[in-house]
Amino acid sequence: MNAVLVLIALVTVGTAVAAMSRRSLLHSVLLLTGSWTGVAAFYLWAGAEFAAFAQVLIYVGAISMALLFAVLLTRRSRVDLAPGPAPGSRALYAILAGGAVAGVLVSAVARGSLAAARSPTPAVTVSQLGSLLMGPYAATLLVVGVLLTVALIGAVVLAAGGGGPEKPGGAP
Amino acid sequence: MSPAATTHESLLERGPVLLRDWLTGFLPEPARWVANCLLIIVAILAVFGLLFAFLTLAERKILGRIQNRPGPNRTGWFGLLQPFADGIKMLTKEDIVPRAASPVLHFLAPVVLLAASILTFAVIPYGRDLVPVELDAAVLYFFAAGAATELAVFTAGWASHNKYALLAAMRALAQLISYELPLLLSVVPVVLATGTLSTTGIVAAQSGWKWGFVPHWLVFTPWGAAAFAIFMVSALAESNRSPFDLPEAESELIAGHLTEYSGFKYALFFMAEYFAMCASSGLAVTLFLGGWHAPLPVLEFIPSYVWFAVKLLALLLGFIWIRATMPRLRIDQLMRLAWKFLVPLALVNLGTAAFWSITFQWEGPFQLVRWAVAAGLVVGPFYVLGRGLSAGLGPRTYRFA
Predict the structure, then answer these.
(1) Shortest CB distance from B150 goes to which of A30, A65, A125?
(2) Which of B31, B37, B202, B389 gets the highest tally of CB atoms within 10 A of its CB?
(3) pTM of this prediction?
């Protein structure tokens, strides 16, 4: 069972690392899609069927499309590659920012109380999930929906407002 | 339901399950499970592979007849061996990869496309107790498995390093994303009415007959008929078939994303297209046409999988008929149909289904009111939107023709 988990983790992290190191943005998008599929496989491994299918449907089906459109509409030609390795100061900032995020995540995981013994997986049906989303978590769902709508309207405003001298390039 | 209790015990009805148990029954438990899974996979691939082969033949024959020519008739009896001759031809052809193409992606695109379309077969109930994988979120799985097709078509177009292929890939992306929305929105009312995402649950909800002869199929409700129509139009567009075959339009894009593919990879694309068509038709049968249920109680002696096959073939022949009759849409017409017509209709239809669900206990004269209101909610927006969209466009007069 753990071998499967290690395999999934390797695929997820490996494709993500490869995506970061490719200079062609389109290859990065395709590799990133592989990474998202790995995350979905992890959900499936963990028994969260619904989350896994939703992950594939939304990330592989929709968000990858949005990224592809962003790349294709902002690149001038297919040989227009991402800039090469940046100077050391940028790498330092990158390490600082990445380290901060990693610190927050690691401390959150470390302080959380993870049960040592494996508790039996609770069997959650889709209808239970649905009533939870419509009941106790309805407010959260609405807030997330409003947030996404605001982001969408923001994207439309950014894309439509061509009055300025420079065009906003590839804002996701 | 007393006749049903006897008929679904019949030998023919339980035939596939009995055959499977007879073939794998002697194995110990874990090996038996694996053998059962492999057997199901082989059965699906064999059945749908043969269906694909003969569907291409049927399509060429029917298209030929509609265009007043005989179609393929030289290979075997009435051209029955034509698909196999085509298969051998495709296998022995040279596989050309352009020098400028990205070799890995060029190879990967047809494989991913075919794999994604085969995956969708896993959750369709082909008959009583004949569902390959019983999933709680089967409908969601179906669309998640199909999500990779867009990516594969785009990869095919981009990896070919050809301007026609890239143009086609952009068209395909725009088309597939636009029609994904009405497709999903037309399925939501079914989930709302049946209260389940499981395909077996949806089929079970459509069992039985009203007054002994009107089946409880969802297509026989006002919102169900509208959702079925929206679903079929969107499924047609999702499978890139005529009249929505803009991404591979032969006359303007020299076959689009298929331009740089040859030999067996080209055949794989066609296989994936037909598999996707079969899978969407299968889902349409499951969601709206009562799945494997017989249309009349007296016809229940015919096995359930035969009924599923009959309904599936009827829908597939409908696809072929549409291909022979409808001219291709322009890209702006395609977009307008999706965003200004199908999506609003599907959203209104969701409200209609909600109304239908909350008025399920209305009796007597209220039943008439219920039908009238629901039918008005379906026909009204259709009429208003259709008139609004076609205002100023017709009727056309052909002065020089």
Answers:
(1) A65
(2) B202
(3) 0.82
Which stretch of DSSP H or E encloses residue A141?
helix A138-160
**Residue A140, Cβ neighbours under 10 Å: how many?**
10
Q: Return the exposure string of B296-306: e unless at least 16 CB atoms fall within 10 Å of the residue's CB, then b.
A: eeeebeebbbe
At residue A161 the predicted structure's pLDDT band, cuts being 50, 70 and 90, is low
Residue A14 DSSP label: H
Give the three-state DSSP class for B214.
strand
* CA distances, B57 to each of A163, B19, B310, B327 (Å): 56, 30, 18, 22
Whether A15 contacts chain B with CB within 8 A: no
Best mutation target among B112, B123, B149, B150 (most A Cβ atoms within 10 Å) is B150
Q: What does the block give as tokens for B70?
A: 């005989």
Q: How confident is the model at residue A167 (pLDDT cuts 50, 70, 90)?
A: very low
Per the CB < 8 A criterion, the answer to whether B145 and B118 are in contact is no
Distance between start and end Cα atoms, chain B = 61
B146: left (phi over 0), alpha (psi -120 to 50) or beta: alpha
Nearest to B125 by CA among B237, B5, B16: B16
Distance between CA atoms of B154 and A64, rounded to whole angstroms? Answer: 11
CA distance A54 to B147: 11
Report the pLDDT value the prediction gives residue B334, as an integer from 0 to 100: 85
What pLDDT shows up at residue A170? 46
**CA atoms of A53 and B292, how far apart (whole Å):** 26
Q: By three-state DSSP, how is residue B210 classified?
A: strand
* A43 and A59 Cβ atoms separated by less than 8 Å: no
Report which residue type is found at B335: M
Do residues B312 and B229 touch, judged by C-beta distance below 8 A?
no
Residues A68, B173: C-beta atoms closer than 8 Å: yes
Closest approach of chain B CAs to the CA of A47, in angstroms?
Answer: 12
| Ranges under pLDDT 50 in chain B | 1-5
User: Cβ B177–A65 below 8 Å, yes or no?
Assistant: yes
Nearest CA in chain A to B149: A61
Q: Is A49 on the interface with B (CB under 8 A)?
A: yes
Residue B193: alpha-carbon gap to chain centroid: 21
- From residue B201, give the alpha-carbon distance in Å to each of A52, A123, B139, B243, B355: 21, 18, 11, 33, 22
Task: Check residue A150 and give its pLDDT.
Answer: 92
